[in-house]
Each structure stands twice: as structure tokens, then as C-alpha cells.
Amino acid sequence: MKSRLRKKLLGFGLIASLCLVQACQNLGPTGGHRAKFNAGTITSLSPSTIMAGGPPFTLTLNGSNFNQGVVTLVWNGTTNIQVAQGSDTQVSFAIPASLIANPGSISIQLIDSVPGDRPSNTVTFTIVPRGATACVLFGLYDFLFTGFETIHLGIPQFNKNNGGAMFAGAFGVDANGNLSGEQDWTEYPFRSGAFDPVGGSPIAGTCTNSATPNQGTLTLNFIDTFGNHVTLTFTFLLQQGGSGPTRGRLIKFADMNSTLGTLAGTGVLVATAPDAVLNGDYAFGLVGIDPVDSGSGSQIGVAGRFTYSNGNLGAGVADINDGGTVTANASVSGAMFPNAPPDLYSRVARDLTIGGQMVHLAIYANSSGGGFAIGKIPSQTANTSAVAGFISPQTNAGAYTNSSLNAPLVFSTWGAPAPMYTGASYTTSSDTTLGLASGFNSGAGTFNLQFDNVSAGVANLNQAVSGATYSVASNGRTTVSYTLGGNTVNYVYYLDGLNDGFILGESGTAAEFGFFQPQAPGPFTTSAIDGTFASATFLPMTPASPNLATEITLNNGALSASSPAGALAGTYVVAPSGRGTASVNLPVLGGSNLVLYVISPGSIVVMGSDNTMNNAITFMHF
User: For residue 120, what are the CA distances in angstroms to 61, 62, 66, 109, 505?
Assistant: First the structure.
């Protein structure tokens, strides 16, 4: 009797032990018993199909008995994706664009971390070949926009007529024209929606084609730092020629974007590949506004280079011109934020130290190997400096010499003399320059200049300088100096390749920022640049600088285009050097008189040449 009782008790103990173990496995996330010892049952997917080459998206699984706290999606048997959100009957996952780059049938299955649990059933997700899309834009794009906003909050110290505004970000457009992504943004003097180490501010919207091919409208919706719902509407214009990823121009006219004010300006967009990353050597250029705490404000320009590897930034050097205060050849360093790798839109955030000054920087990498950047420079007072610009792969790093500048190059710079503000109003003028550098003598370190400049409302046209001096360091940093009108003028160039890179002025308060690029072999003629060009003004330096994005047709000396102000018409002529002049009926490109420099037959840069306080520089590309 005792023996039988002992066996029964042992049997009950074994069963109890098994129940204790398996009950732990069989409990659902809310404490109830799960129906099966598996990761759940999938009954449907939303969406169940998607077009190849599209942007990141959210995949939702419907079913039952999901252990949403620990469930993982297995994509095609190889890639594990952690759950974004869910319940017992529905779980969602963020799918990167890299997983839908090509058509195919994908197996979808769930697993969880409960010991002994089996995977869920398997269902099929279909990636269909690319077909017709609602918008000419489809896939992933990075963008950079700069302009001016009028802010009126009813609070005197926060009111600002024509404060600077900058946006950088990335977005995806799906087959139906729906837009989603993220951005970092800043507005002088005090607001920013940016620089979180683990992600930018979410954006959503639409992409709509216009009646004109390769043009359309982007609508971006987001919530600003005060909780206001903001809608920005941009017109875009795509380039049709050239190599590399799709590129285009953005423009926003001065219309109301929120309860806070209006915004106008221009920008660029470029198609990017999924999972773009930074790795290697880079040159960079940034421009923005420094409030100088007193509210007078100045332009700040930064140009430099660095090496980026495994999230860490080293071998960096940069020059800064902050309203005439120059810091030359300063060290640059930085490191990856913990737990902040590139996200679905290839955004990374870094704290850079430039010459002892901290810069919070967000970078959106693109498929060209570089990216767009936007950042803020913390201040001890309420006002914060803001900068935005470009990061470009640097070839030949460590091997540059004077011979790296050895052929004609076209350059363009933008500046704004300090002080920028008087009280709450922007009162400075633009300082714009276009020119050609040629006749490089690497042994002597000399070259010649031909350039046009409009500064403080005065046009100084077709100037010539012989014997400008230069010296190229192995890291690509190049010092340039010449004498003009009895004054010494200094610039620093940072090369990202042969005859190509960024420019920073180091004389005066205008802090000119710009680019230089190699000129195609000449000589040139007026008819050599015939064609229809995607054209847009860029980097407005004053609130009154013209903003225009349109197609301009050049035909053997005759210029024509449409514009919001009416039909644009005029004439032009080009000299063998590539410098040209034009006269037009409307000042929508900076003046009724223009000067232009040919970079190549498919690429031209144009500037107003009147005595204007509010000039513009326009890039024209096939």
C-alpha cells in the first residue's frame, strides 16, 4: 500500500514538474494559456505584395496567439527582424528597402524566444517587378533645403523677420505616390527639430506629378517642436542627363507653412540606394547662421576633411569663418553615439569637435558615397548656431600635391557680410562670385583668375588676376592667396578629387562658401551649349534673393523659359574661355543682366550681374 502510494506521489510530482515547466512555456503574454506551443498562426499579410525598388515599409501580420513581446520575423529563411509593435492577433515589422530591391517570392515566418516553442506557419510575400507608378519619383531620396522663414509667435524676443531655415532628410515614395521618411531641421534663432542620436523627425506626405514631364509637387507633413502640425509644399524639377543617380532641384515659394510664419527657399534631392553608409575619406562643406548671441548675426562657413571608419571619425581638419573670425587648420574628431547605427534612411548622428567647438551633426548618406549634413553648434545662451551642407568622397587622400590642381576649373561662392540683422529684420546683402581658375603652374604654385563679383549692391565684372598663389597639402587642404586693389585676399580649398572640392573665404565678414569643379576642354562657342536645362537658383543668401526652378532652353544665342513672373526671354553669347553674358526681360535669375560660366556643354552656372543687394546663383544641367 505504501509502495503504491509512493509511486502515485512520485507520478504526481513528475506531472507537476512537467506542468510547471510547460505552463511557463504555454502562458500567453497576458497570463492566459496560449493555444499551441508555437510562435503563433499567421492568417494574412498587409500588404501581401509590393513593387521592387520601393522604399522602407511596415509589414503587418494578422493571426492568433502571437507572443508579441518576443516574436521575431524570419524573412526568406535568412534575415531576422525584431518586432516593432503588436498584440496577440497582429504584429508589425519595419522592412528595410534593401530587402525588396528585386522581384521574388519571400517566405514569412515567426519565431519567438520561449524555449521549446516551434516556429509559426509559413506564408508567402510577393515582390512584383517595377511597373507604372503614381509619381515620377519612386524609391529612396535624400534632400537638402535652405531658405528664410518669417516667424511671429506674439513673443517679442522670438519674433524674427526672415530668419534662416534649413532642412536635411530622406524620404521614400511608394508606387501610389505616398511619401514617408525623416528629417532634421533648424530655424534661426532658436528652434530645431533635429539631432536625436537615434532618429530624425518623422515626415509623411505625397508626391504628385505636374503636367510637365519630370516635374511635380512634394507635400511634407510633420510636427514641430511646439506641437504644431506643419505642411510644406515643394516643387521639384529633375535633371535628364548626366551619369549617376537621379538628381533634381527643390523650390518653395513664400507661402504659409504653419501658424508660425512663411518659408521660401531652394534645395536639392538625389536618389539613394538602400543601406547607404559612410566609410572612407571625405571632404565636407557647411554653411549657416551664427546668431552671435547679440542678435546681429553672421554667416558661418566651414570646410574640411575627415576619415570615417566603423563609426569613428579621425584624421580630420577644417577651417571656419564665423563672420570674419577665422579658425584655420583646426582639428576635427568625433565618435558614434552608442546604439545609434544607420537607420532605415541611412541617417547617422555624430558629435563632432572642430577646433574645440562641439557640433551636433546628422548625416544622411546617399548612393554617391557622400551625403547631406545638418547640425547645430550649442551656445551658452539661448541662441544656437546652425549649419548645413555636403559631404563628398575624397579620392587620393594623403597623396595630394600642387599637381592635383592642374586644369581649368569653374568656381562659385555665396556670402553675406555681417551683421546680418538689425533688430528683428534681416538687413545684410548678398556677396556672390563666379569665376574661372586656369594656367596652373604646380612647380611655382601659381595660377590665373577671371571672375565676376556682386557685393553690397555693387557689380565688379570680368576681373582678372595673374599670379595667384596656392599650396596643396597631402590631405587636400589648399591655401590660396592673391592681391586685388591693394588688398590681400585669402581662401582655403579642400579637394575631394583632382580640380574639384569646396571653397571657404577667409578674408572679410561675408564668410563666402562654395564649390569648384573641373571645366571640360574648350574652346567654347555660343551654339556649343544649346539644349534644354533643368535650372534652379541655389543657396539664397538673403530673403529677397530670387527663387526659381524651371527648364531653360538655350538655342544658338536665344534664351527662353517659363517662370511664375511670366515668360522669360533673352539673348546670350559665350566666349572661347567659357565665360558668357546674357540679357533677359525678367530679373528672376538675379538681374536683367547675367554672367555665366560653362562647366561643360551640359552644365552651366549663372549669376545676376546688376548692382543688386539680393543676387542669386543658378545651376543649369541637362
Answer: 11, 12, 9, 6, 63
Distance CA 289, CA 189 (A): 9
What is the C-alpha to C-alpha distance for residues 598 and 601, in angstroms, rounded to an integer? 7
Q: What is the pLDDT of residues 173-213, one digit of tens each?
A: 999 999 999 999 886 554 555 556 657 889 999 999 999 99
Tell me the longest C-alpha to C-alpha distance in the chain: 119
The pLDDT tens digits for 504-534 are 999 999 999 999 999 999 999 999 999 999 9
Q: What is the DSSP string of 374-411?
A: EEEE--SSS--EEEEEEEEE-TTTT---GGGS-S-EEE
- Return the DSSP state at 38: B
Burial class of residue 60, CB neighbours in 10 A (0-12, 13-18, 19+): middle
CB-CB neighbours of 32 under 10 Å: 10
| List of residues 6+ apart from 63 with CB closer than 8 A | 40, 41, 42, 43, 44, 89, 90, 120
Computed from CA positions of residues 192, 308, 272, 103, in that sequence, does the dihedral angle turn out positive or negative?
negative
H-helix or E-strand spanning residue 360: strand 357-365
Q: What is the per-residue pLDDT across 288-343, written as a single tens digit (0 to 9) for each?
A: 887 654 456 788 999 999 998 877 888 999 999 989 999 999 999 887 665 567 88
**Sheet strand arrangement including 104-111:** 49-51, 123-128, 104-111, 72-75, 79-82
For residue 503, pLDDT over 50 is answered with yes
The Cα–Cα gap between 254 and 240 comes to 27
Burial class (CB in 10 A: 0-12, 13-18, 19+), 526: middle
User: Is the model more confident about 277 or about 132?
Assistant: 132
Q: Are 387 and 302 in contact (CB under 8 A)?
A: yes
Mean per-residue pLDDT of the chain: 86
Beta partners for 464?
450
Model pTM? 0.90
Instruction: Tell me if residue 356 falls in helix, strand or coil.
Output: coil
How far apart CA 602 and CA 607 sit, in angstroms, is 17
* Burial (0-12, 13-18, 19+ Cβ within 10 Å), 243: exposed
Of 38-42, 57-61, 139-143, 317-321, which range is least confident? 38-42
Q: How far does CA 600 lie from the centroid of its chain?
A: 25
Q: Which helix (H) or strand (E) holds 452?
A: strand 446-455
In this structure, the strands spanning 531-538 and 617-621 are antiparallel
Task: Pick the closest to residue 468 from 494, 430, 437, 507 (CA basis).
Answer: 437
3-class state of residue 436 by DSSP: strand
